[in-house]
Amino acid sequence: MRTLETLLGGEWVTTGEWIDVHDPADVRAPVARVPALSPKDVTRAHDHAERGFAVWRRTSPFDRARILTDAARLLRERLDTVAADVTAENGKTLAEARGEASKAADFLDYYAGLARQGYGTLLHDARPDTRTHTQREPVGVILVISPWNDPLITPARKLAPLLATGNAAVFKPATETPASGLHLARALHDAGLPAGVLNVVTGHTAEIEEALLDDPRIAGITFTGSNAVGNRIRRRLADRNVRFQGELGGKNASVVLKDADLAAAAKNVVAASFGQAGQRCTATSRVIVERPVYDAFARLLVAEVEALTVGPGTDPATSLCPLSSPRQRDSVLADLARAVEQGATVLTGGTADTDGDRAHGCYVRPTVLADVTPGTAIWHEEVFGPVLALRAVDDFAAAVAAVNDSDYGLAAAVFTRDLGAAYRFADEAECGQVAVNTTTTGWDVHLPFGGFHDSGTAYKEQGEEVLRFSTRVKTVAVHFGA
Q: Which backbone phi and psi does 458 adopt, to 5 degrees?
């Protein structure tokens, strides 16, 4: 078992307490351990970030860009090693892990490019001999809290823009998957990031939560995770001038209209639903099908699902990996049992997979449920696993109503040959991301990302939209007359 260090104040450190990291493909023995920091260690991380920000905010944007570019290069050079650790602690396939490492490098490159640009606008001024402009400035120390499902790409998505714009960060990776985030931190450190600009807090959240969230030097918090935790953070910040960016839950729907290419729709839905064992915030978990093609589509969908190969992420033949922890596996199985109790019919899957070596892992067979109604809990509640619920509707209007019958509003897709229907769907779906004839997943680094309603806050991630979170606007008027 490897012992990993964490980054505080530009140095790699350990403590006397440890957290074991397990492989969800076989949970019997830990694959690594990381330091379990104390509340005092967390306060020191904020101390370091405060000092790092004082240096980094005055660092040339071109130097910031160079460091991000070099870090991206290092991630790509280390891709196989990084991907192996992502798979070992998260369970996803090596192909998915390599894609995650590559996309993390893309985020660093993209925001390196933006760092070279000025952020502001030239404005007319009613006063004579006066020119006025706006300029964007970093906000300060930002707390980054990332989840276990995308343990490398999510911190890269968050850290790259805030570092590019001159902020400092205290980064808390998920307890289950800290090694991936430490790879990102090491790439940035080795690329020359000044001491204290990035500090990584590994630890048990319950023990360090107060020190993490309540430090008065925090200017912003960016969080990806459950609505329960996100709302708890939001309430905790209610009387403080701290901006909050939350990417929370989703109950994403794909609509299959009667004129769609059903075979192509089935392949896309399966890719969106069962990649990473359904553990994506944008994964399709509901499919709404016009009644005339419901039976035909259901047959195609089940055939595609049953062609998936369940196994460890290290096996090249695997197309459906384990869930990321025993707790997540048990949660998904409980949701399935309740759905069946409420009248849902299992078309395929529906149980844990304990065959052979999989008995020691966190496997759930890919599942398709029929006879799901608006009153079935699984139609509304996020499962975050390899589970897909099917429902027939009479027409386009009913399909849109079913999509919008949710507290969430992250992503939706429609499959159709009708351009008018596609545009009407894009206008009427209450979601931050809408896809036509493609998956609800797979949004690139330059595309603004975030949901409506309970899926997130007003601050978007990705693209230039994220600058609204990571910078503040200052208006400057210059009088040049006599």
A: -70, -20
| pLDDT single digits (tens) 439-455 | 999 999 999 999 999 99
Q: Identity (one letter) of the amino acid at 430?
A: E
- The one-character DSSP state at 176 is T
**Terminal-to-terminal C-alpha distance of the chain:** 73
Q: How far apart are CA 469 and CA 244, in angstroms?
A: 8
Q: How would you class 139 by CB atoms within 10 Å of its CB: exposed for 0-12, middle for 13-18, buried for 19 or more?
A: buried
Separation between Cα atoms, residue 25 and residue 346, nearest integer Å: 25
- Report the predicted TM-score, pTM, of the whole model to 2 decimal places: 0.96
- The strand ranges marked E within 106-241 are 120-123, 130-138, 141-145, 168-172, 198-200, 218-224
In the annotation, is 362 catalytic?
no
The pairing of beta strand 120-123 with beta strand 130-138? antiparallel
Residue 482 has pLDDT above 80, yes or no: no
Q: Which residue among the candidates 281, 321, 362, 431 is catalytic per the annotation?
A: 281
Q: Tell me the chain's radius of gyration from C-alpha atoms.
A: 23
Per-residue pLDDT tens digits for 40-95: 999 999 999 999 999 999 999 999 999 999 999 999 999 999 999 999 999 999 99
Distance CA 237, CA 364 (A): 37
